[in-house]
Amino acid sequence: MESDRHLGPITWPAWLYVLVFYVLPMTLDLVIYAGDLVTDLRVAHLHYLNDSPSWGFWTVFFVFLPAILCFVVCVYRLFSKHSDEVPYVLKWMAIYIVCVFFFPLYPIFRYLRVLPYALMAMCSDRNREENLLQCKEPSQAKTFRFLEAFLESTPQFILQAIILLKSKESNLILETTQLQAMIFSLLSIAMTVITYEQDAKEEGRALTKHKVLPQEKKRKDPWQSETPEEHEEREVVAEEARVNLLEKVLRFIAWLLLLTGRLFALALFASIFYYYFFVLAAVHMIAVTVYLVLKTPVDLDFKTIIIFIFFSFISLC
Predict the structure, then answer these.
(1) Any keyword Transmembrane helix (predicted)?
(2) From CA 24, how far away is CA 283, in angstroms rounded?
(3) d(CA 183, CA 281)
(4) What is residue 205's predicted lDDT score, i.e. its pLDDT?
């Protein structure tokens, strides 16, 4: 094929590059997130059918906890900017309340909106760079995805593990669904962590501008003859991409194993000591929050304190 070029030590066709670094990660993240959401709601439903409404309530609560946090921050901003406009504030509060129920679906909508651009970039040379730029367009879905991993998937895994460890009666359907939910929660956390690490890493790298395609400059024909300097740059980018792919896979496996051990240890501790666990967790979060408040040189506001509480919870996990 004309589009097949030897980039570094391997042949890296453009369609394969797009498939590996855009289509597959987005599809995998979509499947993991959707599976996590569906299995959690299914577990909550089975808890209610199993005469355990309290477990069902907490399962649903953690599903909507990231959306509730976003709602609190939005309402705070609304009051701080429009405190004198009561009808306006009430109207938007009603809109935000409705959005809370649909907000967990927002990442799915985002994936389904940008995935066709990645597929078009993979299947056709026409407007490939523009399509990939659409895939990399900044979105609040990434922020919500990060919140979902630590405010929903993490406590959900611990909650279902505690229920399994404390349960004295066997229910094969419920237990199987709980294990499925726990597996999707682990995958969701690991995927979010490596994605966040990769994004943070690329922000400070000089090669970030090369990440759209294995070539830097736009031409009428992207695969036409190039200068030796450009070919050398493309070799560096291709080798970088190959190493980054292997690094991502290894880091994903490492985080998966690390999270499994840590979260199971927390769940086992909580199932044995129970109330003491929640007391110690609250003390830990308060201590970390106070430390961050005291060490922060800037003026504090409600949003900053919420962020500190969130990071104190992450440090617990």
Answers:
(1) yes
(2) 42
(3) 24
(4) 54
| 55 Cβ contact list (under 8 Å, min separation 6) | 47, 159, 163
At position 306, the amino acid (one-letter code) is I
Domain, as residue range, for 49: 6-211+227-253
Residue with tokens 């109207």: 91
pLDDT digits 0-9 by tens, 196-210: 777 766 665 544 444
Q: Give dist(CA 130, CA 25) in Å, integer.
A: 19
Total structural domains in the chain? 1
Q: Is residue 78 part of a domain?
A: yes
Question: DSSP of 161-190, one letter per residue?
Answer: HHHHHH--S--HHHHHHHHHHHHHHHHHHH
Would you say residue 217 lies in a domain? Answer: no
Say which residue, 116 or 302, is predicted with more confidence: 116
Chain segment 219-237, per-residue pLDDT in tens: 444 434 445 444 444 444 4
115 with 18: CB under 8 angstroms? no
The whole-model pTM stands at: 0.77
Hunting for tokens 């209610």 — which residue is that? Answer: 48
Helix, coil or strand: residue 96: helix
Backbone angles phi, psi at 276, to 5 degrees: -65, -35
Q: What is the mean pLDDT of residues 56-76?
A: 91
Alpha carbon distance 160, 167 (integer Å)? 10
